[in-house]
Structure formats: C-alpha cells, structure tokens
Amino acid sequence: MKKIIALILAAVMCALCFAGCGAKKDKLIVGITEYAPMNYKDEAGNWTGFDTEFAQAVAEELGMEVEFVVIDWDNKIMEVNAGSIDCVWNGMTLTEEVLAGMDCTDPYIKNAQVVVMKADKAAEYTTVESMKALKFAAEAGSAGEAAIKDSGLDGAYTAVLDQAAALLEVKSGAADACVIDITMANAMTGEGTSYADLTYTLSLTSEEYGIGFKKGSDMPAKVNEVMKKLIENGKLDEIAAKYDLTNALISNQK
To answer: Cα-flanking dihedrals φ and ψ of residue 61, to 5°?
Structure first.
C-alpha cells in the first residue's frame, strides 16, 4: 500500500511539474502601459503598436503565445521579479535602475525625452532655464520623470499614471508642459492628431529601449537571437514602417 501511495504522489508531483513548465513555455506574459505607437488599443479594442507586433513576432518564432497585461509602470521591476509578468516590453528606457533590476535584451530603438507644451507658447521657451517656472507632468517612475528632476524642472512637478495622462494634463491646462518619449510625441501631437495644439520642443536626453526579464532569466539571449533574425529577414523593418519608426531602429542607425 505504501508503495502504491508513493507512486501516486510521484505521479501527481510529476504532472504538476509538467503543467507548470508547459504554462511557462507556452505563454509570454508581457507587462505594458497604453502608449502609442508602442502598445495601444485599436478601434476593436485589440492591442496593437510596434512593441505589440514585435513581441508577437518574437513569440511566434519561440513557439509561444503572448498575453499583454497593463501594469503600474513605477512597479515594473518588482512585477517582473515577482513573476506576475514574464517581461516588460513597452518602450522601456534602459536606465541604470532598469539594468540593475532586470536582465535586459540588446537595445532596439533610439529614443529621447522631449518637452511637450502648447504650440502657441513654444517660441517663448527655448531653453531649460526659461522653463524653470513652468508646471510639469510626467509618468511616475519614467525616464521623463527622471529627466525633469535631472534638469531641475521639478519645482512644480506632478507625477501621473502614464504618458497619456501627462499629455492630458497639458491639454487641459493643469500643467504647462510634460516630458514624454519622442516616439510618443511624434505619434500623438501636431496636425492630424488628438493633440493638434501641442508640440514638442527641447530634447532633454538621448536613450535606448530594451526588453526586461527577471534576474537570471535565459530569455534575453533567446530574444536577442530572434531579434537578429527579424532584422536580417526584414520583418522588424516592416513592423517599424507601419508605425513611422524606421529611422528610430538601432539596426538602421549609421
């Protein structure tokens, strides 16, 4: 009887082990925020964008499905290391904090943090010094927030949930300016956009995007290999062209 019970327990443990491993191998849970043109919802309510399609292309090569989960950006390192998500793939700047807290892929996009304000006020503010008295907004825990603080523009600063909220602060007049990624500023401001009265002015930083995984993960190396393949076969260029990011791709930098 003891032998039978032992065999049953062993079988159950083995099944649980395989089930756990299978779930991990079959699905990639990607932590994101809603941020055009990287990850945002189309008219049908489905996730789209450059990073969305990039993640899906990589997952397909790895034989995995993708599930996108909206996270609190300020807690991204904690989320990935706690295992509630597998990675952060959302126009993430490779800051010192990110590189210390996660294992990251090679960079794939060149980016900058830019000041966005009402277009009719832009000519009045052409230097950091001239902006010192302005009310600023940025996403909590973002590179934009860091750029504001590093530039000494945090005298009247408000942290908000995400970059879209930062734009709304400026549009509504609650803030004079915000600092967001240039990739988003290109997609979301100016003629023909929802923020036609906004424009971006100064670049405060130059940076690169990467994908972050849990410390000790073997996934960054795997994703790097697939990334090389997608660059060589033109797939990454094809995705970038859809979202006006061709010139931002590091693989296209001279």
So the answer is: -65, -30
Element of type H or E holding 249: none
pTM: 0.79
Q: Evaluate if residue 7 carries a pLDDT over 80.
A: no
Determine whether 130 is exposed, middle or buried from the number of CB atoms within 10 Å of its CB (0-12, 13-18, 19+): exposed
Fold of 25-108+210-252: D-Maltodextrin-Binding Protein; domain 2 (3.40.190)
Residue 121 has pLDDT above 50, yes or no: yes
Using the predicted structure, report yes or no on whether residue 24 has a pLDDT greater than 80: no
Domains 25-108+210-252 and 111-207 share a fold: yes
Concatenating the DSSP letter of every residue in 72-104 gives -GGGHHHHHHHTSSSEEEEEEE--HHHHHHSEE
| Contact indicator for 242, 187 with CB cutoff of 8 Å | no
Classify domain 111-207 at the CATH class level. alpha beta
